Amino acid sequence: MPGPGQTSLVDARLGELSVAEYDQAEQEAMVQTPNRAIMAFQPVVFHQYGYPARVRMGAELFKYIDVMHDLRFEEDFHQLLGGLTREEFDLLQRLTTLICRFSEARFGRKALARSSVLRHLYVLRHIRYLSGGRPLRVLEIGPGCGYLGAMLMLEGYSYAAMDVTQAFYLYQNWFWNFISDGQVTELARDSGLAPREMTAPQPGGILHVPWWEFVRSALRSGAPFDLVVCNHALCEMHRDSLAFILKSARRLLDAQDGRPKAFVLEGWGARYISLSEATKSFYRAGFTMVHNDGGIIVFAPTGTSWATNGLRLPHHTPLKRRYVRGVRRLLRRGINVVRRAMWESPLPDMSYEPCEYRASGNPFSRAIHEGRSAERGTKTVGLEQVNRFYTELLGSENHLNPDERFLTELRP
Known about the structure:
The protein is α/β, with parallel strands linked by helices and 412 residues long. It is built from 15 helices and 8 strands. Strands 3-4-2-1-5-6-8-7 form an 8-stranded mixed sheet, sandwiched between helices. The radius of gyration is 21 Å and the shape is globular.
């Protein structure tokens, strides 16, 4: 039940969100939002590199069907996934067919999402390992195209998501509403001044949270989640945003209900924030790294059984090493003063890089190892079969998205 001064979510399922609706809601919320929060919850790296983070017309959302992993499909298929199980291939076919139908219905032309779906299949594979076979309550930060959320919804998980990027947020809303027949609980619409209760939805449901509502509600919410997921975004955030998200995640994972509790990521994202700083931020927020193999990274709430045999950060270094690092730190500070004056990004802090870490005594790390071992020999679906499905669905052997076509033209 909503607390005092909090509004109900019952009437929030109203269907597709328009560009004008989102922009107006954001502007109204920003009147009451502190400047530092507005500064923090921006797509920093997108702005830095000029990547389009906003749209003016709904028709532009066609460009966000398959993005951010251009020309990596074959590499991801072989090196990241190592093939697909029959169950994974069935889910890929189901989701890709929905994407194609959505594109045709909303934009008048068919389109595929290849690499974006593959990456999220890999994450889903590990969520299954960690869940022990039961659907969990998942909160995703920065869902991108929204395909992990779509898979979790189709698999019967309870799913909530927050994004700071207008274009991606709108695409998520449109696509999720299309595949769920309008069953998205959308908090960007008519949010008002009172904070909402961030309640985990029923299994198979989706709760969509705009950044300003997350700022108002996340630390005040008592809603329990089991997993927080953030892929390729943590090191692309403003530092205050990272600190807020990790503090919120620790609170949302605090329920002592015997269910698995973890923060999971498949990649850190571009290095606006160094791996050293991001890792230390996790520990300051009350998390411990329990698994890191370069493909999947898992943090568990410190002090819980889920953090057993976790990795300890190094605190002491030999005198000579400390001296060398001190000199490097002074030099870096001097260089960074000059770089900031020239409006360039500061040099990253390289004082600590999280090492690869596996622990048979940790329940999450052990579950990943056992899950991978159990699936050996079951990845019977190869790239040729997947490409054949794409050709039949699209009616063409050219499966490249618009960004990939542009990039292939740049090749010599």
